[in-house]
Design goal:
The complex is a heterodimer of chains A (129) and B (216). Chain A is of the alpha/beta class and 129 residues long. Helices cover 46% and strands 19% of the residues of chain A. Chain A has five helices and five strands. The chains are: A alpha/beta (129), B alpha+beta (216). At the A-B interface, helix 1 and helix 4 of A face helix 2 of B.
Chain lengths: 129, 216
């Protein structure tokens, strides 16, 4: 079966959080990684590289994750955005899902949750294609 | 020694980054625990880590909260391998607003000085929930176990020039973890400062190294 995910954009203001997320993504799948340190940079990178999947933090300087999701969905309503956040309040989760996020993963990440999220993203992208 | 050099001496940039991310996760837990009790959404900010000399601490806190000039501070000590003081700073009107958010207005006829008493107790309860969840998560992530002193209202309705002197020794260093938060209802916003003394630092460095090793 053809792989649907090639480019992954990781958005988090914390370099450590980006490193932690990357370590949970299988290394043998040939993914191409891109990174952004805030929502503004994420929107610019999204426009430029058109990632298949975007992992998005919410609490960030310059532009937060909510605003970035809104802008990215405006650019591509089918964008697959997986929110990775420490803000696990029900209202935060409801809000990002309404904005168009694909799913929400709670920090601290577990490898199996990330792998499962990528499988679900593959399925979604396959349906869209 | 200037703050930058002091910071370099005590924690590396990577250690500061790890601590910042752990604080982010811990405060996310605190916000979630509070939102489970009252119907609010706690709006979080990016946490901030700073290394200070103990005598600089009162001035630092005073500078940080200068926009809120009537404040209440709830303090709770935490004791474990990671030990120190947690300070939660609210504007002084927060107690009354929190009574409404907790739906407790109907209880205000019980005491002679009901609003003040209930406001004080509500503030301490909110402080207890948030500090407990935050420190608890932080300790869990760093594989520590902590106990707490009961929350104490150390400043009530005083202008911000009355921040108490640090209880740390004058030549001690302090790691200050600061998070700013606000609620989506009412006009409450505040700060959480975690101040830990020099004696926790060696343990903390080792705990941070072990934490990040899982992700190497």
């Amino acid at each position: 079966m053809q792989k649907m995910i090639r480019k992954i954009l990781i958005v988090d203001d914390s370099p450590i959080a980006r490193k932690m997320l990357k370590s949970c993504i299988p290394r043998d799948q040939g993914y191409e990684f891109h990174e952004a340190g805030d929502g503004r940079e994420a929107v610019e990178k999204f426009r430029e590289i058109r990632p298949d999947v975007t992992f998005m933090d919410l609490t960030m300087p310059v532009m937060n994750g909510y605003e970035a999701i809104e802008e990215i969905i405006r650019i591509d309503p089918k964008a697959v955005i997986i929110v990775v956040t420490a803000d696990i309040q029900v209202k935060a989760v409801t809000k990002v899902m309404k904005l168009g996020a694909h799913m929400v993963l709670k920090k601290i990440l577990r490898k199996e949750d990330v792998e499962d999220a990528l499988l679900k993203a593959e399925d979604t992208l396959r349906k869209f294609s | 020694m200037d703050v930058k050099k002091e910071k370099e001496k005590i924690l590396t940039d990577e250690e500061v980054d790890i601590l910042q991310e752990i604080m982010n996760i811990a405060f996310g837990q605190a916000a979630s625990d509070l939102a489970d009790v009252i119907d609010i959404h706690v709006i979080l900010s990016v946490p901030f880590v700073k290394i200070l000399q103990a005598p600089e601490l009162p001035d630092y806190i005073r500078d940080e909260i200068r926009d809120i000039c009537n404040i209440s501070i709830i303090e709770q000590k935490f004791l474990g391998k990671f030990r120190g003081n947690a300070l939660m700073v609210f504007p002084s009107h927060a107690g009354k607003e929190l009574i409404a958010l907790f739906g407790l207005e109907e209880n205000t006829h019980i005491d002679a000085d009901p609003v003040e008493t209930l406001g004080r107790e509500t503030l301490m309860e909110v402080g207890n929930i948030m500090i407990g969840a935050c420190i608890g998560k932080l300790a869990e992530l760093l594989k520590d176990s902590v106990t707490y002193s009961p929350p104490r209202l150390i400043i009530e309705n005083h202008p911000c020039d009355t921040i108490p002197d640090s209880q740390l020794a004058a030549d001690d260093s302090a790691i200050v973890l600061k998070t700013v938060f606000s609620f989506d209802k009412g006009s409450i916003s505040g700060f959480v400062f975690l101040v830990t003394s020099h004696e926790s630092i060696q343990w903390l460095k080792e705990a941070l190294r072990k934490f990040i090793e899982q992700y190497e």
